[in-house]
Amino acid sequence: MPKKTTILIVILAIITGVLIYLAVRSDQSLQTNTNTTPPTPSPVVVKAYADLSFSTNPVDVSKGSTAQTIDIVINTNGKPVSGTQIELSYDPKVLTSVTLTPALRNPFFGTNPVVLINNVDPTQGRISYAVAVSNTDSEKTGSGSIATLGFTVNKFAGSTFSQITFLPKSAVTTFSSQTSVLNISTPLQIVVSQPVASPTIGGR
Question: What is the 3-state secondary structure (H, E, C) of the chain?
């Protein structure tokens, strides 16, 4: 075989090998891109702005009726919300006959709110209440009552003060955020009885 023919065959073999290598690499790269899971989008986080509190605070039953009805109120500070979940804790030895009903006075979510959860556990002293706008309704802004809380104070429980506290699971939702926009939640302070003054020494 002539020398030139041998060199030509070698060159062609090298070129063929390079082309095969490039084709294999390209196919592997295509498979890798096809099997790659698309990145999970980061949740939309909106700065918290809504506040939860009670319509009357503190409540003093030391010289008055032990039966109370107080509204749980929301203030969105001019921004929209779609719903709220309220988780409250109280001392079941001090507070009895606890009830929670949709607000009648200035109802924030309207006269027919969508109540998702309404549960009172008198043994653990735990209240769970969730309400939201309907699928056909728009978000709400401003301030108003979410629910009306009723309870009776046991003056003989041995406590001078008590409170109803919002738990960390409490949340306020909005269509534009995947996280809660609850900013401040203020507990309800209850004066059960006035402290007894200590006797003065020596008649002073």
Answer: CCHHHHHHHHHHHHHHHHHHHHHHHHHHHHHHHHHCCCCCCCCCCCCCCEEEEECCCCEECCCCCCEEEEEEEEECCCCCECEEEEEEECCCCCEEEEEEEECCCCECCCCCCEEEEEEEECCCCEEEEEEECCCCCCCECCEEEEEEEEEEECCCCCCCEEEEEECCCCEEEECCECCCCEEEECCEEEECCCCCCCCCHHHC
